[in-house]
Specification:
Length: 588
């Protein structure tokens, strides 16, 4: 009887103390939780596994990971819940290395353990590591590791982030094999993942099978069509949506902006505002990107005003990329004064902020300023990435600084950045522009077989462009033949080689190439440019005569062409441009 009464007393005490710890967790009352912990130690109830687990959870929810670890270590008899509580705490606090180490240490990790790690890694963008954890789980093959709905959602998110279609199909197959029915959240995750992997058709099959859909289902399907470049179908589905939110609008706006449809993206953005939707940060960045690709700096300024009036894009970390997008927009539209002012006003900058400005000065022909910014960035202890080096190489290209470009390539290794194909292509282009065509050719032609750094499309394209300027017919033919293999559907390469033949007087070869293009059904889109004047965009194509001020335009072109003939030491590139201008005028 005494034993029974004691047991009942302890059970009631455990229940009462558990409720008190729960209140501490709900209210994040750390001080009260510490007092309860002290009371448990004094009353010897700290050895109770259930209460000890609650203490670990309490410390973790209050952000005290070290205290949670101590409480975990003091549990004399740990159960699966003990391990999973600390594991989830690590994942919530983004201590992913600790989470992976604890998973390896666990005597018998269950599906909850793996789900916590997979979800945590996916949430932090460590998609490959999340998929590796899933594969490890599959290799163990225990009955306690049967895939559940949380596994599906976590792994699908990782597959979408990593664009890993094979792993996505594996998790889909596992769902079918265990007879797991896809619920709303699981279906949404699968549709989103298939869309990111470019499998819009499979995503559509899943979408059609859903008995119940929410706004995320529709938005994910719109996103799937956008990722596949099927913008018309995306827009049609968007129009059919029973309800929309700001994320739905952002998905379609982003799609049009990413596929070079700046005008359509901006029209959608205006419709979104007129519909009373507050734009998300992604929608704002996409609208700025649309202004950039369409060179609509006037519209970009209007957007800047909208952002400023609503105090969007301040110095909060989540809005930093809006500021970076503004700098990028001004820089790419040629307004480096505004880009620099924005940069100087920023209280907090990241690598993207610096890259935008370094790239902007390089693209606008101020190589010296670009390289000076690069050096300032290095002196401040910031670590440049592959984009930074590419921009600095571009600056060297504009300024004709061959020696400095070589130093940059050597410097990349010191900063842990491996030169990629585009870096070597920039070097080849610089050598070609600097009349070192043979050196550029040797760098490309004598690369190790299969060396993606040197023998890629970018390097051979730069060689072909340099041959066009310098008139090296044999090397041009070799470069073009290589490009025909690497890019069999790129009509521009055929046109460039044809123009090189024509410039050299090899009319028969030029005619044969044009005939071959016709047989293959190739048709090169005419070159297009545009300019914004008083918020109105004017579009032009090569040899355009449709503009209302055509006569004035060609009068100025004639004037410029005449002046380009005058300097005796005129650069060959300028000479090439003058020949083009003269040819156009002769056509008229």
């Amino acid at each position: 009887m005494v034993v029974s009464e004691t047991t009942t007393h302890v059970a009631r005490a455990v229940e009462r103390l558990s409720l008190q710890i729960e209140r501490c967790i709900a209210g994040r009352r750390l001080l009260r939780g510490r007092l309860l912990h002290g009371h448990l130690i004094k009353t010897s109830l700290a050895v109770n596994t259930f209460l000890a687990n609650r203490l670990v959870e309490m410390y973790a929810k209050c952000g005290q990971i070290a205290a949670a670890e101590t409480a975990f270590a003091e549990i004399p008899s740990k159960n699966a819940y003990s391990w999973n509580t600390l594991l989830s705490s690590y994942c919530t606090a983004s201590c992913l290395d600790c989470a992976k180490a604890l998973l390896d240490e666990m005597p018998e990790p269950n599906i909850v353990s793996y789900n916590a790690v997979i979800s945590g890694l996916t949430h932090e963008g460590c998609h490959r590591e999340a998929l590796e954890a899933f594969r490890k789980m599959q290799r163990e093959g225990s009955s306690r590791l049967a895939v559940d709905k949380f596994t599906v959602v976590g792994v699908a998110g990782a597959c979408g982030g990593a664009v890993d279609l094979r792993s996505l199909q594996q998790i889909h197959g596992a769902v079918v094999s265990v007879g797991l029915q896809l619920n709303l959240i699981m279906s949404n995750a699968m549709i989103d993942a298939y869309g990111k992997c470019g499998e819009a058709s499979t995503a559509w099959v899943l979408f059609q099978r859903m008995e119940t859909r929410d706004v995320f289902s529709w938005t994910s399907m719109v996103g799937a069509y956008v990722s596949a470049g099927r913008l018309e179908e995306a827009h049609q589905l968007f129009d059919r949506m029973p309800t929309r939110n700001a994320v739905s609008w952002s998905a379609l706006i982003t799609g049009y902006a990413q596929h070079g449809r700046g005008d359509a993206a901006l029209k959608l953005f205006m419709a979104m505002l007129e519909g009373g939707f507050a734009p998300t940060a992604f929608a704002l960045v996409s609208a700025l990107s649309a202004c950039t690709c369409a060179a609509l700096v006037g519209r970009g300024r209007q957007l800047h005003g909208y952002i400023s009036r609503r105090s969007i894009g301040g110095d909060h970390s989540e809005n930093l990329f809006i500021q970076n997008a503004l700098i990028d927009m001004y820089a790419k539209c040629g307004d480096m004064v505004c880009a620099l002012k924005l940069f100087e006003r920023m209280r907090k900058r990241d690598i993207v902020s610096w890259n935008s400005l370094v790239t902007g000065f390089a693209q606008n022909g101020d190589g010296d300023r670009s390289l000076a910014l690069f050096q300032e960035m290095i002196s401040l202890g910031l670590k440049p990435n592959h984009v930074t080096f590419l921009s600095a190489l571009s600056a060297c290209n504009h300024a004709g600084l061959v020696a400095e470009a070589r130093q940059l390539l050597a410097l990349m290794g010191e900063h842990g950045v491996c030169p990629q194909q585009e870096h070597h292509a920039a070097m080849v282009d610089l050598l070609g522009r600097s009349r070192r065509l043979k050196e550029a050719a040797q760098l490309t032609i004598f690369a190790a077989p299969g060396d993606g750094k040197l023998d890629g499309v970018g390097s051979w394209g730069a060689i072909l462009g340099a041959c066009r300027v310098h008139g090296d017919l044999e090397l041009a033919r070799r470069a073009a033949e290589t490009l025909f293999v690497l890019e069999p559907s790129n009509a521009g390469r055929y046109v460039m080689l044809s123009n090189i033949y024509a410039a050299a007087g090899h009319w028969e070869e030029a005619r044969k190439l044009r005939k071959l293009m016709k047989e293959k059904g190739f048709k090169k889109e005419p070159a297009r440019s545009w300019i914004e004047v008083q918020s109105v965009r004017h579009d032009f194509v090569a040899e355009d005569t449709s503009h209302c001020r055509t006569e004035d335009i060609y009068r100025i072109l004639t004037f410029l062409a005449d002046h380009m003939k005058e300097p005796a030491s005129c650069d060959e590139l300028v000479g090439s441009r003058q020949q083009e201008a003269t040819a156009v005028l002769q056509c008229r």
